[in-house]
Design brief:
The chain is α+β, with helices and mostly antiparallel strands. The protein starts with a helix and ends in a 5-residue tail after the last helix. It has 6 helices and 5 strands, in the order αααααβββββα. Helix content is 49%, strand content 17%. Strand 2 and strand 3 form a beta hairpin. It has a 5-stranded mixed beta barrel with strand order 1-2-3-5-4. The chain folds into 2 domains: 89 residues, no CATH class; 65 residues, OB fold (Dihydrolipoamide Acetyltransferase, E2P) (Beta Barrel).
């Protein structure tokens, strides 16, 4: 009975032909591996926005170019490693500094408030108080001393939901007289 169940046409490919075809194709077409790696790194970069994975993507593009130039697979891996390392070490820090160093009109959220002028609504001390920044009332803390109501101040930092304020330098020294 067992013999009858096993008898009949074989529809499966031998193991060494079916599973290895894909690996043979990838071995001959490294460009597909590098293109897939680049696309994966680009998608991960879109999620993280850290400018790290895009540097690895640059390495994958360098390896892709090396493959198109006819380089051996081991040399493509070397290109990937070296270009990725150089981009992470030299390009990423420069890109991050340019990304974070923008004009004040590019700053967003509470970062825009730093350097803005404000008016003290309720006396501000190191323990607390209220200031009006633009059209909003903020809890505030003085960087030095007690600031009376009506005093013009400058926002020097934002600590959570509290504005840290100080007297502008012109108000401390007084106006110049001619």
């Amino acid at each position: 009975m067992k013999g009858q169940l096993l008898a009949g046409p074989q529809t499966r490919l031998p193991r060494d032909e079916g599973g290895n075809r894909m690996f043979e194709w990838l071995g001959e077409n490294w460009w597909a591996l590098w293109l897939t790696a680049f696309l994966a790194f680009a998608v991960i970069e879109m999620i993280t926005l850290d400018l790290f994975f895009i540097m690895l993507g640059g390495g994958a593009l360098a390896a892709l170019a090396a493959d198109f130039a006819g380089a051996e697979p081991w040399l493509q891996v070397v290109f990937f490693c070296i270009v990725s390392l150089l981009m992470v070490a030299f390009v990423r820090p420069v890109a991050l500094s340019h990304l974070k160093k923008g004009p004040s009109e590019q700053r967003t959220n509470v970062d825009r408030l730093i350097g803005e002028s404000a008016i003290v609504m309720e006396a501000v001390s190191s323990d607390g108080g209220l200031v009006k920044i633009g059209g909003d009332i903020w809890s505030a803390r003085s960087a030095a001393g007690v600031l009376p109501a009506g005093q013009k101040v400058v926002v020097s930092a934002i600590d959570g939901a509290t504005a840290v304020v100080s007297v502008p330098p012109a108000a401390v020294t007084g106006p110049e007289t001619a």
